[in-house]
C-alpha cells in the first residue's frame, strides 16, 4: 500500500462554491449586448430586476461614468429617479465605473416598464 501511495499522485479535494447557475449561452448574449451598446452618458447594464414595494431594484454593472443618487433616466418612455444605491448590501452615495451593485428606482408616474437582463439604462 505504501508503494502505491508513493507512485500515484494524491488527489486534492475539490472546493465547491454556491451560486446562481447561468447558462453559457445567456452569459455570451449578455456580454455581446454590453459590447454592442456603448452608452453616450452614464451606462448601467442590467443583470436582474426585482419589484420592492413602490420602487424597483435593478442589479447590474456600471459601465461608464458615475451613477449618483437623484440621477434621472428614462426607459421605454417612462421616467425614473434613483432613490438609493447599494454596493455589497450597503447604502452608498454613488456607483463607479465597473462596480456591480443595485439601483433602487422610483417611477415618476407610477408605471413600471418591462426591463430584462441585458438591457442598458442610460443616465
Strand content: 35-45%
Evaluate the radius of gyration. Answer: 20 Å
CATH superfamily of the domain at 39-110, by name, is Translation factors
Shape: elongated
Per DSSP E runs of 2 or more residues, the count of β-strands stands at 9
| Contiguous uncertain segments of 5+ residues | none
CATH level-1 class of the domain at 39-110: Mainly Beta
CATH architecture of the domain at 39-110: Beta Barrel
Distance between the first and last residues' Cα = 67 Å
Summarize this structure briefly.
By secondary structure, the chain is α+β, with helices and mostly antiparallel strands. 15% of the residues lie in helices and 42% in strands.
Describe the structure.
The termini are far apart. The protein is of the alpha+beta class and 123 residues long. The strands form 2 sheets. Strands 1, 2, 4, 5, 6, 8 and 9 form a 7-stranded antiparallel β-sheet that branches. The protein has a domain at 39-110: Elongation Factor Tu (Ef-tu), domain 3 (Beta Barrel), CATH 2.40.30. Strand 4 and strand 5 (78-87) form a beta hairpin. The radius of gyration is 20 Å and the shape is elongated. The protein has helices at 2-7, 24-36; strands spanning 43-52, 55-64, 67-68, 72-75, 78-87, 90-92, 94-95, 100-107, 120-122.
Helices and strands, with pairings:
Elements (H helix, E strand, L loop, with lengths): L1 H6 L16 H13 L6 E10 L2 E10 L2 E2 L3 E4 L2 E10 L2 E3 L1 E2 L4 E8 L12 E3 L1
Antiparallel strand pairs: 1-2, 1-9, 2-8, 3-7, 4-5, 5-6, 5-8
